[in-house]
Design a protein that fits this description.
218 residues; mainly alpha; MetI-like fold; flat
């Protein structure tokens, strides 16, 4: 018989672990947004080495499991003299992984901007940097918000993999208490509910952001 009273004794620890999950996801998605933008700009450039480098990055990251990537960062980098903590390693691995997918999202958004707008800006004497900053990227970002939102939600859920490298986020803490109290169903259901609550709030925020961006476009 299920006994959720056990969970109530540890709910404070689970909430603290949820905060760690949010922090981990936030740092990783910010890193992913930065790397994704850089990779997208490299991919649409006319400089062949940059295009090849971006294509290689996206190909490798999207073609290998995120579990392998996080293990390479956490366990592999110390072999070459780079020591990182579990939290930092997880942020880097998750951020680099997200960046490959976000690059394609950005690229699609940039390609959706009518070419006539850039040509008109060029005729006015604007530089490439100014055109991208003032005309192309703001529009591309608005178009990309739904896909970026999905990526952020996926990142929040994928952060649970950090438990495998000892980050005390929600999944690891839930596993620990489930094992010590022999209440696996109770703790895993609670963890699922907390993940659902976080993703619901994130989805609500993203919908509000999308609505505001669409209003400002009119």
């Amino acid at each position: 018989m299920l006994d959720f009273s056990l969970v109530s004794d540890f709910i404070g620890f689970l909430l603290e672990a949820s905060v760690v999950t949010i922090e981990l996801s936030l740092f990783a998605i910010v890193l992913g947004l930065i790397l994704g933008l850089i990779a997208a700009l490299m991919k649409i450039s006319n400089i062949k080495p940059l295009m090849w480098l971006a294509d290689f990055y996206i190909w490798v990251i999207r073609g290998t499991p995120i579990l392998v990537q996080i293990f390479l960062v956490y366990y592999g980098l110390p072999q070459v003299g780079i020591e990182l903590g579990a939290f930092s390693s997880s942020v880097i691995a998750l951020g680099v992984n997200a960046g490959a997918y976000i690059a394609e999202i950005y690229r699609g958004g940039i390609m959706s901007v009518p070419k006539g707008q850039t040509e008109a800006a060029e005729s006015l004497g604007m530089t490439y940097t100014t055109i991208m900053r003032r005309i192309v990227l703001p529009q591309a970002f608005r178009v990309s918000i739904p896909a970026l939102g999905n990526q952020a939600i996926s990142m929040l859920k994928d952060s649970s993999i950090a438990s495998l490298v000892t980050v005390s986020e929600l999944m690891m803490v839930s596993q620990r208490f489930a094992a010590t109290n022999y209440a696996f169903i109770e703790f895993y259901i609670t963890a699922a509910a907390l993940y659902l609550l976080m993703t619901t709030f994130l989805s609500y925020f993203l919908k509000k952001l999308e609505f505001r961006m669409s209003q400002s476009e009119r």
